[in-house]
Design a protein that fits this description.
The protein has helices at 7-58, 66-85, 98-125, 131-200, 215-235, 237-266, 271-285, 313-320, 327-335, 349-356, 389-454, 458-485, 495-510, 527-548, 576-581, 587-598, 621-625; strands at residues 290-297, 302-309, 339-342, 361-369, 372-381, 513-519, 552-559, 563-569, 602-607, 613-619. By secondary structure, the chain is an alpha+beta fold. The strands form 2 sheets. It has a 5-stranded antiparallel β-sheet. The protein has a 5-stranded mixed β-sheet with strand order 6-7-8-10-9. Helix 3 (98-125) runs antiparallel to helix 4 (131-200). The longest helix is centred in the first third of the chain and has 70 residues, at 131-200. The two termini are 69 Å apart.
């Protein structure tokens, strides 16, 4: 619902009324002009009818063509019909007054029933029309035209009156608008300007009286409230400055404490060193008389006292005896918020020991990290302190940072242990890839040597001894490389040459025909990708030598945007279900999968197209660029 007390509402209504009034006046003047134009067109047409009536009377004579006579008669008929019907769009309309319509009907009747038949008869008999008949028509049309002119004269005077009225209204509206602007806008704004000047000059007691209820009045009310607050601020500034200074000093002190604590906890230390340093600092920052920290351990979440300070030996023993989460400490962990306790309200051996030592109040805070609560630290006071909300939040922040530091220390220790395990795994893989394969080959050659000695086959003995010597030398070289870098060598001869070296060694050791096919000219592999791929090929060929009983092996390398390697033999084949069941127990398959995972590749072992076994390695273009 509109409120007329609002300045915007009054201005809107005033604008609507003014626009509506002007629109109505303009619409009315347009209608007057339309009426004048329509009646003017009617008078002109009546004059034309008079002229054509005299012409038709003249054309009744025989010397004039009959078509001219008929044209004049036709024009008068059409003119009479147009006067009767009218044409609003020209515009051309006979005024619809009773007097004018009666005169028009008489003229039309006289034409249709008297003058027109006489003219046609005169034309047919070649006789002249009496002059008095034409004079009567002329007088009738003149009278009809004068009636229309009288009608138009009334509208012209209305139009003049409206124009004069509009001039008067324009000047009157100007005065009314100026008056309203002065009373609604200019004077209130002047009061606001005066108030701002007075307030700017320091007169904080000045107020705007009777501000009103419109928008400017609301601004005035707001200015009065602002002046009141400025006055209050001015007279209480010293006290507020002191309060703000104390608050800033407290915050700066808290920031310094927080910085000191974070700097200490950010350093890598063992958990025992972390909690010892934390207790020393938190006791000083919180001005506590003592502090104790318990850590949660085990699946049953038992408490274990990590450190305590500021208490005597009986109290320390009592605090160390707390093992289970119950009572006050359980509420701290379950709610996850700090709680304050009075020792007189607690009924336990530890609270009694602390009370006997003179302590009265305990503040307990949960120690939390990303995985949840991992412990509790408690501040011990002999007299109940008044800890502010900011101090409580600071202590909560300390507890969180302590939990993060302890968790980080545990993660670092786990990472160190994982690194040791990973290094051992790499060493085991290196032993499998190098020494184990070499010893397996030497064992095979020793068996061949024993059979050759029994058969007294001198040439076989010499060949086997040469193979054993070569194997021992290769094993020696592998051991040297293993001692240097756990087999993490980079083949400086290039990827394809490295694969050829592996294949040549395989043929020499197993007497199996091996063929290498290389397609594509993709980018060079990184040292790690080249190393892991060659080791996977070597492991696949080792499995062929030990298990496949094959006669031929084909190694196909497709080196394009991505890399795919296929090692296929024509041996006894492989059962995919058996391979999947023994994947975790088969060292060679596990090593190939792990090496492929290190470079983002995949390895599959499946039956070949014509029997035998196919080992496939695929390295995508995205993984290759990483």
């Amino acid at each position: 619902m509109l409120c007329l007390k609002r300045l915007s509402t009054r201005l809107l209504l005033l604008t609507i009324l003014w626009v509506s009034f002007i629109s109505s006046i303009i619409g009315y003047t347009m209608w007057l002009n339309w009426e004048l134009e329509a009646s003017s067109a009617a008078t002109k047409l009546i004059s034309n009818v008079r002229t054509h009536a005299f012409r038709a009377a003249q054309f009744t004579e025989e010397q004039y063509p009959s078509f001219e006579f008929e044209r004049e008669i036709h024009f008068i008929d059409e003119a009479m019909e147009e006067l009767r019907v009218g044409d609003p769009w020209r515009p051309m309309v006979v005024p619809q007054t009773k007097e004018i319509q009666t005169q028009f009907e008489q003229v039309q009747k006289y034409w249709n029933h008297s003058l027109k038949p006489d003219l046609e008869k005169a034309r047919a008999t070649n006789t002249a029309i009496p002059a008095n008949r034409l004079n009567y028509v002329s007088e009738s049309l003149t009278t009809f035209n004068e009636a229309i002119e009288a009608y138009r004269w009334d509208f012209r005077w209305q139009l003049r009156y409206i124009q004069i009225f509009l001039i008067v209204i324009a000047f009157g509206s100007l005065g009314a608008i100026m008056y309203l602007l002065i009373s609604w806008v200019i004077q209130p704004l002047g009061k606001l300007g005066e108030a701002i000047q007075r307030l700017s000059a320091g007169d904080l007691n000045f107020r705007i009286k009777n501000p009103g209820e419109d928008e400017i009045g609301e601004i005035a009310v707001g200015l009065n409230h602002m002046a009141e607050r400025l006055k209050d601020s001015h007279y209480n500034l010293e006290q507020k400055v002191a309060e703000k200074t104390a608050s800033v000093e407290e915050k700066n002190n808290h920031l310094a404490q927080l910085y000191e604590m974070i700097s200490y906890l950010a350093q890598q230390r063992k958990q025992d060193d972390i909690v010892e340093g934390f207790v020393a600092r938190i006791t000083r920052h919180a001005q506590a008389d003592g502090c104790a920290i318990w850590m949660l351990s085990g699946a049953d979440q038992q408490l274990q006292l990590a450190t305590v300070t500021g208490v005597g030996e009986p109290s320390e023993k009592a605090l160390a005896g707390i093992r289970h989460l119950d009572g006050a400490l359980a509420r701290v962990i379950n709610k996850g918020i700090p709680l304050q306790y009075s020792l007189s309200d607690l009924d336990s051996e530890s609270s009694q020991a602390l009370s006997d030592e003179g302590f009265s109040t305990v503040y307990a805070f949960p120690i939390r990290c990303a995985t949840g609560e991992i412990g509790i630290f408690a501040l011990l006071y002999r007299e109940a302190p008044e800890l502010t909300t900011q101090m409580i939040r600071l202590l909560e922040s300390f507890a969180v940072h302590l939990g993060v530091a302890i968790e980080s220390s545990n993660l670092i220790e786990r990472d160190r242990q994982f690194a040791v395990v990973q290094e051992r795994q790499l060493l085991a893989q290196g032993l499998h890839d190098s020494i184990a394969q070499a010893l397996s080959y030497l064992n095979l050659q020793v068996q061949v040597l024993e059979m050759a000695i029994k058969d007294e086959d001198r040439s076989q003995v010499d060949e086997t001894v040469s193979n054993i010597r070569t194997g021992v030398q290769d094993c020696y070289e592998d051991v040297r490389e293993l001692l240097l870098n756990f087999r993490e060598r980079v083949h400086k001869t290039g990827f394809v040459n490295g694969v050829k070296t592996v294949i040549d060694r395989f043929e020499a050791q197993s007497h199996v025909n091996a063929r290498l096919i290389v397609n594509g000219s993709g980018a060079e592999l990184t040292p790690n990708q080249k190393l892991q791929t060659i080791f996977i090929i070597q492991e696949a060929l080792s499995n062929v030598r030990k298990h496949a009983q094959a006669q031929n092996v084909i190694v196909v390398i497709n080196n394009n945007d991505d890399l795919s390697v296929s090692i296929e033999d024509d041996g006894v084949g492989v059962d995919p279900k058996l391979v999947e069941e023994r994947r975790g127990q088969h060292v060679g398959l596990s090593i190939m999968a792990e090496r492929a995972a290190r470079i983002g590749a995949t390895v599959n072992v499946e039956a070949g197209d014509d029997g035998g076994t196919r080992v496939s390695l695929y390295l995508s273009a995205d993984a290759r660029r990483q």
